[in-house]
Amino acid sequence: MSETTEIKASSRDIVGKANRRVEPDRLPAVVYGAAVTARSVSIDRHEFEQLLVHEEGFTSKLMKLAVEGDKAINVLVKSVQRDPATGALLHVDFWAVAMTQSIVTTVPVHFEGEAPGVKAGGVMMHNLQLVQVEALPGDLPDALIADISALEVGDSIHVSDLIAPKGVTIVETPEEIVASVVAPAKAEEEAPELEAEQPEVIGEEESAAE
């Protein structure tokens, strides 16, 4: 686990459609979960945007949320809502977790190595880039590693091939494919070029006969 990030939040009384009146530099959010009373808050928009840029697997990134001087609580980002047209952040759900209770969430898969099958002309397919795991919040890994350095054309890595850290259980179908190297699709055969025919000039033969 990497160093825990702390996010400072402010209480928010404006909820629902009135969120549009929240200051532009603030991002509406809600926190709920184990041993906390659900409450509406706001956080610094720019700081959270930077966090998303640098934290690929933020759904498994344990953070601390401190609301106006209250004792910081352990949270995960449960969901992020974006504007479908612009991609701008609209809202964040924080999930307060109890450190003694196992939870199920997703972690990213990191692919390591160079597949010989790709060098031979095959195409690497990343079939599964997020994997569900169950663990105590403090045991959540930043990512699971998939070693692709032995994959030839036609080979695959399955969920059962992933190695989870101690205390972490992978909650996926073991036979599901994580990555594979497939043969490139056959190029469509080009149709033979036909000799260009001279355009027929209407009345040409008639004129020559006269």
Describe the protein in words:
By secondary structure, this protein is mostly beta strands. The protein starts with a strand and ends with a helix. The chain contains 3 helices and 13 strands. The chain is 10% helix and 38% strand. The protein folds into 2 domains: 5-96, Ribosomal Protein L25, Chain P (Beta Barrel); 103-182, RNA Polymerase Alpha Subunit, Chain A, domain 2, CATH 2.170.120. Mean pLDDT is 84; it is low at 186-191 and 194-210. The chain has helices at residues 45-54, 116-119, 204-209, and strands at residues 5-11, 26-33, 39-44, 63-67, 73-82, 89-96, 103-112, 123-126, 130-135, 144-147, 156-158, 169-170, 177-182.
Key structural traits:
RNA Polymerase Alpha Subunit, Chain A, domain 2; 38% strand; 210 residues; 3 helices; mainly beta; single chain
Which helices and strands, and how do they pair?
Blueprint lengths: L4 E7 L14 E8 L5 E6 H10 L8 E5 L5 E10 L6 E8 L6 E10 L3 H4 L3 E4 L3 E6 L8 E4 L8 E3 L10 E2 L6 E6 L21 H6 L1
Parallel strand pairs: 1-4, 2-6, 7-10
Antiparallel strand pairs: 1-3, 2-3, 4-5, 5-6, 7-9, 8-13, 9-12, 11-13
Summarize the structure.
This protein is mainly beta and 210 residues long. The chain is built from three helices and 13 strands, in the order E-E-E-H-E-E-E-E-H-E-E-E-E-E-E-H. Helix content is 10%, strand content 38%.
**How far is it from the N-terminal to the C-terminal residue, by CA?**
96 Å
Helicity range of the residues?
under 10%
Q: SSE order, as H and E? A: EEEHEEEEHEEEEEEH
Strand order of the largest sheet: 1-3-2-6-5-4
Shape estimate: elongated
Amount of beta strand: 35-45%
Give me the Rg, rounded. 28 Å
Q: Give the number of helices.
A: 3
Q: Please identify the structural class as seen in this structure.
A: mainly beta
- The CATH first-level class of the largest domain comes to Mainly Beta
Which fold name is given in CATH as the topology of the largest domain? Ribosomal Protein L25, Chain P
Total count of domains: 2
Q: Could you give the count of β-strands? A: 13
Low-confidence stretches: 186-191, 194-210
Q: Report the mean per-residue pLDDT as an integer.
A: 84
Query: What profile does the largest beta sheet have?
Result: 6 strands, mixed, barrel
Q: Can you tell me the CATH architecture of the largest domain?
A: Beta Barrel
